[in-house]
């Protein structure tokens, strides 16, 4: 099994070593799995459970102080599942997989996704705020009131990786994984979104072709400024470059170059192609990845 995972594209993290250790653990968990789809789910579970990443526990907070999680998963035969805007759901990737495996749909949202998760035994009602998230939120002096007041308040802060000048930004640490066993490919991405988005905002992560994609040619996971990633369907773009003959590294490089030219924004992508080529590219300051090729499976 070949596996690559990412821990988000953004600024240079303060403690890269400890994050790298979690990424390596996640990649190993993936490589020990039976199938590529198990591999991406298992790898992402590790990252969702770590408060160091913006997915599951430690996810970004929205304008009403609630962490809502999003995820998408896809396999090379174009089976796909996604779930979004879920308060209290640590393992968003498992809800996405549930949508793929158990429903005739591709995408289920908000309280209905949470209810579906609960009905199938996926844990809900988890407090996703880490200690740091709590402290940061307490400092922010959010307004009382509805969407208009919240929108006014976040207008200058949304998309800033360091809201209000605080350090330890959690804006960019979305997680993703791609796996290939020599025959089948799977890709998945999971996130808490971006700091101080309007309550209910959903980014690229659960949108097929934007935050994740898989087809016979390649599997892809993206991270970065979600609105901009969705505008150019970044993950599909990488896969298309592979379909036209590039290997995964050349395809991720080209897609990120195009993304920068088209949007002026920052993002990163990882990919594995059907010849076993692995690619990773980003135009932010940093994107940590870990990769494993286990010959035993
Ligand atoms: N950190 C991220 O990668 C954020 C994610 N792409 C989003 O916009 O929701």
From TrEMBL:
GO terms for molecular function: asparaginase activity; peptidase activity. GO terms for cellular component: cytoplasm. The active site is at 174 (nucleophile). Gene3D superfamilies: (Glycosyl)asparaginase. InterPro entries: Ntn_hydrolases_N (IPR029055), Peptidase_T2 (IPR000246). Substrate binds at residues 201-204, 223-226. The keyword Transmembrane does not apply. It catalyses: L-asparagine + H2O = L-aspartate + NH4(+). This is Plant-type L-asparaginase. It comes from Natronosalvus rutilus.
């Amino acid at each position: 099994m070949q596996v690559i995972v990412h821990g988000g594209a953004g600024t240079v993290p303060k403690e890269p070593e400890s994050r790298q250790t979690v990424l390596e653990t996640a990649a190993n968990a993936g490589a020990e799995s039976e199938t590529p789809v198990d591999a991406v789910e298992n790898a992402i579970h590790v990252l969702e459970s770590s408060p160091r990443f913006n997915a599951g526990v430690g996810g970004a907070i929205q304008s009403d102080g609630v962490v809502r999680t999003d995820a998408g998963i896809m396999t090379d035969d174009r089976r796909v599942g996604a779930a979004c805007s879920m308060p209290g759901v640590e393992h968003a990737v498992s809800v996405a997989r549930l949508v793929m495996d158990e429903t005739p749909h591709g995408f289920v949202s908000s309280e209905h996704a949470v209810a579906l998760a609960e009905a199938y035994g996926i844990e809900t009602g988890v407090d996703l705020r880490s200690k740091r998230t709590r402290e940061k939120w307490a400092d922010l002096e959010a307004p009382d009131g509805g969407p208009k007041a919240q929108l006014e308040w976040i207008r200058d802060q949304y998309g800033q990786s360091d809201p209000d000048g605080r350090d330890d930004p959690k804006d960019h640490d979305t997680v993703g994984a791609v796996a290939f066993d020599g025959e089948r490919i799977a890709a998945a991405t999971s996130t808490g979104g971006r700091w101080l988005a309007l309550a209910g905002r959903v980014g690229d992560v659960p949108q097929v072709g934007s935050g994740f994609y898989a087809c016979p040619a390649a599997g892809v996971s993206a991270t970065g400024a979600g609105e901009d990633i969705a505008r150019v369907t970044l993950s599909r773009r990488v896969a298309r470059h592979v379909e036209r003959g590039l290997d995964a590294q050349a395809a991720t490089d080209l897609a990120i170059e195009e993304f920068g030219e088209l949007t002026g924004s920052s993002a990163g992508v990882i990919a594995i192609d059907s010849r076993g080529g692995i690619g990773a590219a980003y135009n932010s300051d940093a994107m940590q990845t870990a990769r494993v090729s286990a010959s035993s499976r």
